[in-house]
Every structure is written in structure tokens, then in C-alpha cells.
Amino acid sequence: MRKSTSAAPGPYERVHLRPAGKALDPSGSAPIIQDDDLTLPKWGACMEYIAHRYAGGALFLPPTHPAYAHFGVAHDNPRVVQMENQISTTLSMLDARLKESDWLAGEEFTVKDIMIVFSLSDNDVISATMSTLTVHHLNVSQSERIPWLCEELAIPYELKTYKRAPVFAPPGYKALHPSGSAPIIQDGDLTLAESGACVEYIAHRYAGGALFLPPTHPAYAQFIYWWHWANGTFQPSLNLTLFLSHSGVAHDNPRLVRMKEKVGNALNMLDARLKENDWLAGAEFTVADIMIVFSLTTMRYFYGYSLAEYGNVVRYLERVGAREGYQRAMKKCEPEMELVLGADAPAKPFGNPPPSK
Ligand SMILES: N[C@@H](CCC(=O)N[C@@H](CS)C(=O)NCC(=O)O)C(=O)O
């Protein structure tokens, strides 16, 4: 290698050594560069060495550059987010193992424990991956969306579940936030309610906006439409129909009839959309799907409508039910619930006595 102070590419010798690379450096992992007496492995070190030694630091931004902080390692850099997700999945597995046994191998302390303690005592790893996110889940409610989101994105969270008392949220839940409505999340000093706000906060704060489509995406308009429609139009229509039908008005009450028509119209729209697309935004699963699924499933414990006429919606729910993130979330937050993923409404609506035999 000839050293140069200009940014012009210098000559270098390229040698393919695999698998003999191990002889060069104990790591044996590519890349490895040599320059006179120096042998250097690791991508970052090689790049810094060559750019600074041979090209005056070209392609590096200086600390005075306005984008310097982003050049370093932006916390929302997709590669970093992916790494953090992998680490948090590993930590969850480790946590599950150590729930069952005192040491990694079981009852006996082994060399495996010595090896892992080094990684676990690295503060950077811990602070990068251990969030303080708490999800307060009210049973049989819209807050199931939040554990689902966290599971899809492998974001660590503490789950606290609350039973309804007997229909509404118990006082302990209501005291968490002035709205008293599920979902509620806490993160450090922050307490946040409202599904859309919680989903946006978690996806952006912890996962670089994953499961949101950016404005440059071809399906962006479709995405924002269904994302807002789910909780801004569809769920409120179901709520109103539920309240009217439980208010003692006759079946042919014009307001009730109108609301049922609105729900039917919404389901027709949805069915047409899902005939052509696997997910609401199109080909990609997004938070729009996480938002709507409660209204199509658990909500039917309260307002027991059938999906028999909406085959595309039923097939969509089959795809939802096959997602591991959904399965994990529902197992954790609703272990006793029979999931409502088929065409029929639940045989036993929430809060009602079982049908007499
Ligand atoms: N638009 C709100 C609606 C929240 C809401 O109404 N949650 C219901 C659960 S499905 C609730 O908290 N009900 C219990 C109560 O009001 O005591 C959101 O999406 O967060």
C-alpha cells in the first residue's frame, strides 16, 4: 500500500485468502487489511484507517458538520434498529430461561454463566435494549393492539393486565390517565392513552417508524386512509350501533337501522379492499392492520355481528391469526379468550351468562 494524502484512489493489493484468513488475524473474519507491519480486522476499523491514513478522512463527516450526529450512529438507523430488535429477542429468550432455572444450564453454575455475564454487564447493550415501556391492558379491549404492535416489532415491554369490573375498567385502571380508557402506556415519566397515539409513539420511538409507510411510498395515501378509517370511522360506527341496540329501542328504530346500514357499507368497502390486497395498505402489513383487527374480532364479544357475507374479510383474519406476533400477544394478554377469527360471532357475548342448555 502506498500512503497518499490526496483523496485520489491509491493502489492496493487484493488477495483472496479464505479460509486461510485465520492465519492473518485470530478473528479470521473478513475484512482484514495489512499495511507494513499492521494487520487490522473489522469493517469499521479498516474503513477509518484507510480513509484517514490515505484520503485525509474523505467520506467521514467532521464534528463541525451539521449532520455529524446523524453520520455517527443515528438511533433510528434501520440497521441499528434491526440489531436492537435481535438483541431484545435474545434477552427475552434469556429472561424466559432464567425464570425456570437459576443458571443457564439449569441447577448448576457452568462456564456458560461466566461467558454471558460479560455481555449482560455491558451498560450500552442494556440501555440500548431495555426499555421502561409498560403496557396497561384492560381485558377484552382495544388495548390488545399495543402488545400486538410490540410483539410484531420485538420491542420489550412490561405487560400489566386488568380485569373489567364488571363491564368497565376498574378504578386502578381509570386512575392511570384522565381518559381512563384502554389502551394506556407508560414510558418513564410519560403516561399516554389513545390507540393511535400509543401506536405512533411506540413505533417511532422504539422502531424508527417501522410498520408506518413514508410519504414517498407508492401506497402512502392508501395507508393513511385505512389507518385513520379504522379507528376514526369504523370502530365509532360499531360503538354507536352497539349502544343503540342496547338502549331498548325497537329493531326498526330508524337510527338503529341507519347505523346498521353504515356498518354493512363499511364491511362491503373493507371486503372489496381485501379482495385485491393481502393487507389494508396493499402488499405490506402495517399499523393500519393492527388498528382495525380489534373491531373485526374481539369487538364482536360486545356487538356480535357476523362476517359470513364478507369472505375476503374472513380470509384476511386467517392471515392475521397466522402471524406469530398476533399469536404471542393474544396468548400473553388474553390467555383465556377464544379468539374471534372466523365468520361467526362468539357464542357467548362478553358479560352475558352462558346460553342455557
Ligand atoms: N378511541 C379510544 C377508545 C378507547 C376506548 O373506548 N377503550 C375502551 C376499551 S374497548 C375502554 O376503555 N372501556 C372501558 C371503560 O370505558 O371503562 C382509543 O382508541 O384508545
Q: Hetero groups bound?
A: glutathione
CATH architecture of the largest domain: Up-down Bundle
Describe the main β-sheet briefly: 4 strands, mixed
CATH domain class name of the largest domain: Mainly Alpha
Number of strands: 6
CATH topology of the largest domain: Glutathione S-transferase Yfyf (Class Pi), Chain A, domain 2
- What is the element string, with H for helices and E for strands? EEHHHHHEHEHEEHHHHHH
Would you tell me the structural class of the helices and strands? alpha+beta
State the end-to-end CA separation: 87 Å
Low-confidence stretches: 1-9, 122-128, 353-357
Portion in beta strands: 5-15%
- Helix content percent band: 40-55%
In spatial order, strands of the major sheet run 4-3-5-6
Please count the helical segments.
13
Mean pLDDT: 85
Counted up, domains total: 4
What is the molecular shape? Answer: elongated
- The Cα radius of gyration reads 27 Å
Layout: helices, strands, pairs:
Blueprint: E1 32-35, E2 38-41, H1 43-55, H2 68-71, H3 78-100, H4 111-120, H5 123-129, E3 133-138, H6 145-152, E4 158-162, H7 171-174, E5 184-187, E6 190-193, H8 195-207, H9 220-245, H10 254-276, H11 287-296, H12 311-321, H13 324-333
Parallel strand pairs: 3-4
Antiparallel strand pairs: 1-2, 3-5, 5-6
Helix pairs in contact: 6-8, 6-11, 6-13, 9-10, 9-11, 10-12
The structure holds glutathione.
Glutathione binds next to loops.
